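G., the chain you wanted modeled:
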Amino acid sequence: LVTAPPLVVLGLHKIAAVSMDLNPTLVDMISSSLFLLLVFCQVLAKMLSCDIVLPDSVLPWSEAMTYSLDLQNIFQWDCLAKVSFGTKFVLKMLIPIEVLLVFVLCYAFARAASILPGGQRADLSVAVNNYASLTVTFFIGIVQSTVDVFQCYQHPNKLFSMLSAPHIICSSPEWQQMALAGLLAML
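Predicted structure as C-alpha cells:
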C-alpha cells in the first residue's frame, strides 16, 4: 500500500510525457473517459448524501460511489491507533497536501535517478500538470471535505449535529476546532 502512490505518480508521468497532438491516442481517450466516469460517480455520491431519490438500479453502486468523494474511507486509521473524529477530519482535509508531498518526493527521486547512466530526465511541467489534474479530478471531494463540518441538522431538542457525524454537536468545543480547520482549509 505504501508503494502504490509513487507508482501511480510515475505511471501518470510516463503517460503524460507522451506528446499530445490533435489526434488523440487510445490512452488519451481512455484517461478522458475515466475522468468523466469519476466525476459522474462523485456527482451521484453527492446526490445520495442529499437524500435525492435515485432509480433502484443505481442504489447497489451507491456505496462504491462514496469512495470517489471520500478517499479517506480507504484508510482505516483506527487500525493503527485510537484516532478522534476531529483528527480524521483534519487528515482528510490534508490529503491534497499529502499527495503534493508524494509528487515532490517522486520528482526529487526521479531527478536524482536521472544522473544514472540511461536515466531519463524528469520533467517538472509534467509533474505539476499531473498534480493539478488530480486536484481537478477530485475537486468535488476536496471541497466536500472542507464543508462537511458546516452541514448540520436540527434535533427535536433544538441542538444541531453534523450531518456526516451525528455524534458531534455543532457549536461544541470539538466542532469549533474542526470549524476553524475547515475555514482555514477554505482559504
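The two ends are 31 Å apart (CA to CA).

Shout if anything looks off.
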